[in-house]
Specification:
This protein has 17 helices and 5 strands. The chain has 346 residues and is α/β, with parallel strands linked by helices. The protein folds into 3 domains: 134 residues, 3-Layer(aba) Sandwich (Rossmann fold); 62 residues, Helicase, Ruva Protein, domain 3, CATH 1.10.8; 132 residues, Zinc Finger, Delta Prime, domain 3 (Up-down Bundle), CATH 1.20.272. It is globular, with a radius of gyration of 24 Å. The N and C termini lie far apart (57 Å).
Length: 346
């Protein structure tokens, strides 16, 4: 049974299961869910806690022993298992499947790790554990989902606020829920009367928005020019190597080019062949409505040139060139507006 992160704690109060699978790359939601589980487990008498990490040196017999051991000091045991890669491997998968069939009601098993895909959710071990428990996927929030999360957080803190406050807060902490939660905690101390507006908020906030390259690519494919430039600015300030971004742009160009060729030859597009799941297919479709094969050819030439210059470390301000490239993907007609030599090369 899947439980969405914003519904997890209310659901936990109503129903307590023997196993929970918590995956995703959004730390704030994961932290709060794990803390809620630990607190609830303690209330339910799971007073002994065992923490395991399935790294390269991990012995799966350790987990088996933990699920079978009877403590002299506690009737019920909480076992937390971290899967650093999101996958247990062949040996671990078999053992987890067996554990799901024989898990004692006096043992609570929590498994957590990074973002996983549908391939993991379809595995035998995942389904077996889900059948006796529940799973939650904690992914970064954007747009309306982020605004809703912030609004609920402000309401829970007792604030009276305007819609503009939510938008401002979202702009400041986009891609970093932890920063949003911290800023609201600061607001509680700064404004004990719980009355805030845009002016008060602008005085109190520190811009802590954080993005990763994958988010940048999705926004670029959607054609959101303003957000694209903002993300590049933040990535530059965080010291992300330009070569990482140029590699991502080349990879996306190759995918768009291949799909474009299939469309032109009226061949069926098997999205999974390109590693593109249903939730991202629309991004590529949007991009291909803006870009024809001629435009893609020219973008490919620009990428080749930029890749060569970046590898030679002969670009003074590489993020200017990256912005130029991203805006080309977004459909801005810049192909006939090359950057000047002073902006590009030493």
């Amino acid at each position: 049974m899947q439980i969405f992160p914003d519904k997890f704690i209310p659901t936990l109060e109503r129903e307590f299961r023997g196993c929970y699978l918590i995956f995703g790359d959004e730390p704030q939601q994961k932290f709060e869910i794990l803390q809620a589980l630990r607190s609830k487990a303690k209330q339910q008498g799971f007073t002994e806690r065992t923490v395991l990490v399935a790294d390269t040196d991990f012995s799966w017999n350790t987990l088996l022993d933990a699920t079978q051991a009877m403590s002299l000091f506690a009737d019920r045991t909480l076992i937390e298992l971290e899967l650093p890669t999101g996958k247990p491997g062949t040996e671990g998968a078999g053992l987890l499947t067996d554990i799901a069939a024989n898990l004692s009601p006096d043992t609570l098993l929590i498994i957590h790790g990074p973002r996983i895909g549908k391939d993991v959710q379809r595995t035998k071990w995942f389904k077996a554990l889900d059948s006796i428990g529940a799973f939650t996927l904690c992914y970064p929030l954007e747009g309306n989902a982020l605004s809703g999360w912030l609004s609920r957080r402000l309401q829970q803190a007792g604030f009276q606020f305007t819609p503009g406050c939510v938008k401002m807060l979202a702009d400041f902490c986009e891609g970093n829920l932890m920063a949003g939660a911290q800023e609201i905690e600061k607001l509680i101390l700064a404004y004990p009367d719980k009355q805030i507006d845009e002016q008060k908020l602008s005085q109190a906030l520190v811009d802590q928005s954080r993005f990763n390259v994958f988010q940048l690519v999705d926004v670029m494919l959607q054609g959101d020019k303003e957000r694209c430039v903002k993300m590049l600015y933040r990535l530059e300030s965080e010291g992300i190597e330009p070569n990482i971004i140029i590699w991502a742009l080349i990879r996306e160009w190759q995918t768009l080019w291949n799909v474009c060729q299939l469309q032109q030859s009226r061949q069926p597009i098997v999205w999974q062949k390109f590693g593109i799941w249903q939730n991202r297919q629309g991004f590529y479709q949007q991009a291909l409505k803006r870009l024809n094969s001629e435009q893609l050819t020219r973008i490919g030439d620009q990428l080749t040139q930029a890749d060569f210059l970046f590898k030679q470390e002969s670009v003074v301000r590489p993020y200017i060139k990256l912005a130029h490239l991203c805006l080309l993907f977004a459909g801005v007609p810049l192909l006939h507006m090359p950057l000047s030599d002073t902006e590009m090369a030493v």
